[in-house]
Amino acid sequence: MLILGIESSCDETAVAVVRSGKEVLSNKIASQIDVHAVFGGVVPEVASREHLRAIRPIFDQCMKEADVSINEIDAISVSQGPGLIGALLVGVSFAKGLAVAQAKPLVPIDHVHAHIHGALLGVEDQNIFPTLALVVSGGHTNLYFMEDPTTFKILASSIDDACGECFDKVGKLLGLGYPGGPQIEALASKGQRGLVQMPTMVEQKNRMEFSYSGLKTHMANLLRRKDKAPIEDICAAFQEEALGQILRKLKVAVKQNPRAKSILVAGGVAANGRFRELTETLQLPVHFPSLKYCSDNAAMIAGMAYHRINKQGLESFRTTEWDSYSRYDFEAVL
Ligand code: KG4
Ligand code: ZN
User: Distance from the CA of 315 to the center of ligand 2, in angstroms?
Assistant: First the structure.
């Protein structure tokens, strides 16, 4: 089964063709990072306009690289939300237009859940489910228990900032460009971890939430001091706590969910090398996406669509009568 994926929830316009949820025939991404970098973060209106400019050429390039025609596509899938509403609407409108014109089924996909399918794309191991699945991105820090590829039970999420957001905001405080994550990691790799003290966030073992705003405030105060440590040591200590917090919660989750056979880690922060190192101490096999499927992409959208179609059948995706959503309506969605 050939599925077209479309992604436009934030600052990447992406289109992919994936065969049967595994084989990625083409995965095209137009990143807007350079456009937003001068503003120090993503400007929603600018993002929407850039998506409008990029979506058609990226679609054409993707179909060419995959070497398939639209007639051969069995279903179209698209990020429905959460994300920037103007940005989402570009991808969703394009996908709806294509689905109606070509009489193809259209599968709306939750962007955050799809990140986990980025981790599943390259995994051959069949012994994954039930799994503990973690999404650590610029907008979300969510831990789920997944019985199968389409069932998500939320175990923990951030009560304030997301982990990637904290990396970005601290990057800004440090005078680094956007996004802060990769640059903080690069500096941290040259520093010593134990030299600068950091607060331990959400220390209580029985509390499963994540929290990042206190760490961000601590960094803002620390950076105001005249006699501060070298930036590399500050970054190393910050990164250790930002990621260490997730490790602590994962360890608790492993204990509390003895049926889990594996751990999937996804989202932009999953690209962090130190994070990958830290998870080696966990008791279960941990699967990370390959780097190209960590940050926003459309292969993960098409990958997840395959599993939804497997569960519900193609015919249940014949309608385009649904809306994008910017944020979760937790009661309706989860
Ligand atoms: O998943 P993603 O591309 O976009 C969202 O859906 O949010 O994640 C982007 C986030 C940014 O906050 C970025 O700073 C962070 O992922 N990130 C990293 C690294 N690479 C990207 N954070 C820490 N270390 C990295 N190497
Ligand atoms: Zn994302």
Answer: 28
